[in-house]
Design brief:
Length: 391
């Protein structure tokens, strides 16, 4: 394993210091990449006896404990793949994960990461991502038995707001996070599913608060994971995805306009050097040398969605380029290695974001991006209808 790490470190060094060249591995068919990524996800689930997904694979340590948060939003991805690949067993796996999550919900309705952290504190963001999983199973699998758990999660989120749209309680470091708008998306979806105006109002208030955090240059304030850190492409993409999906449910143009303002700036940065570092400052300063591959995959999803909404091919091309960059790092040739098909946290692998790890969420978003690409290329002139969506 250490030999693999050494080889990957050298490869990654050249990937981030030289222009990316097309290779035969990079041009591998998307279907092969989806299948390889699914292999990684299913291995992560097997590590948790089929009930959850391991946080990821870490070089030198092996598989990590289960992550409740990311297990929640892997559920919709499994349901997508069950339909696309005609593999009903994936839907059964997703339902089993939803059942496990219902069993580990706190009395408050929130969720903690007991296996990963020992602080015993329910967190809004984690709860929102798990709510995406409940929503998907209710909406797409008819699992009405999960409605009470979804309601408890939503009530916990509502109780964590300040009345002005911000989730100020029950979150990490007791600070407001703009990326919580991805949780508001889940709350809005449940509100529409159940006809609960309180959930809808709180979700839309959070979207309004989030837009108010955007500066004239497109940067979102209050969007760091913890004090003293920089904003990164992963968190920025969370904001953009939350806003664009809330737009697709509510029809409010304000949200997609905010997304475009930030997306346009990020495309300019990327095109200037064919590179977008992980950490970014308020004036779009580049504050790191490593790339967050999760952020790349998430931004690709956003750009494909924008293309379908606007028909602007700049978004399509940016999404394709970012996705190609992530695909170039995926191992699709060594199925016996535990990280086969997975996506690293950072490029290079020793970068500051999830160092030496293949996080399950990086691979989840890579799959989502490949599916979003297929949708964008299949129906490039269609405009997304207003619709409910989960995770």
């Amino acid at each position: 394993m250490l030999a693999h790490f050494a080889v990957e470190s050298v490869r990654d060094f050249f990937r981030v210091t030289l222009p990316i060249q097309k290779t035969s591995e990079q041009s591998t068919d998307d279907q092969v990449r989806v299948e390889a990524a699914l292999t990684f996800i299913m291995r992560s689930i097997a590590q948790c006896k089929g009930r959850a997904s391991s946080k990821g694979y870490k070089v030198g340590k092996g598989w990590l404990p289960p992550s409740r948060e990311t297990s929640g939003y892997i559920i919709p991805t499994l349901l997508d793949l069950a339909e696309r690949l005609n593999r009903p067993e994936l839907a059964s796996t997703a339902e089993g994960m939803g059942e496990w999550l219902s069993e580990v919900q706190e009395p408050s309705g929130g969720f903690i990461e007991h296996e990963l952290r020992r602080d015993g504190k329910p967190v809004v963001f984690n709860t929102g991502q798990i709510l995406h999983g409940f929503n998907a199973l209710i909406l797409r699998r008819g699992r009405q038995d999960l409605v009470p758990y979804a309601r408890r999660a939503a009530d916990f989120m509502v109780s964590s707001t300040d009345g002005n749209g911000s989730f100020v309680r029950n979150d990490r470091f007791e600070i407001a996070h703009a990326y919580n708008v991805r949780s508001a998306w889940a709350l809005l979806t449940l509100g529409r599913l159940l006809g609960d105006k309180t959930y809808e109002d709180v979700a839309l208030a959070n979207a309004e608060w989030t837009v108010a955090q955007q500066t004239a240059n497109g940067f979102f304030l209050n969007n760091i994971f913890q004090p003293g850190c920089n904003a990164n492409t992963h968190g920025i993409a969370y904001v953009l995805q939350g806003l664009i999906e809330i737009h697709c449910i509510s029809g409010r143009q304000l949200y997609v306009a905010a997304v475009r303002r930030t997306a346009d700036r990020m495309i300019s940065l990327y095109c200037a050097s064919r590179h977008l570092v992980s950490e970014i400052g308020e004036n779009w300063e580049l504050l790191s040398s490593h790339v967050c591959l999760t952020g790349y995959a998430q931004l690709a999803i956003v750009f494909f969605r924008l293309y379908r909404l606007t028909g602007d091919k700049r978004y399509l091309n940016a999404g394709l380029d970012l996705l190609d960059d992530v695909a170039a790092t995926q191992d699709v040739t060594s199925p016996k290695t535990p990280h086969y098909g997975g996506i690293k946290g950072s490029l290079p692998i020793y970068g500051r974001y999830a160092p030496l790890q293949y996080p399950n969420w990086a691979t989840k978003f890579f799959i989502d991006a490949l599916l979003a690409k297929q949708a964008a290329l299949k129906a490039p002139t269609d405009r997304l209808p207003l619709q409910l969506s989960a995770g």
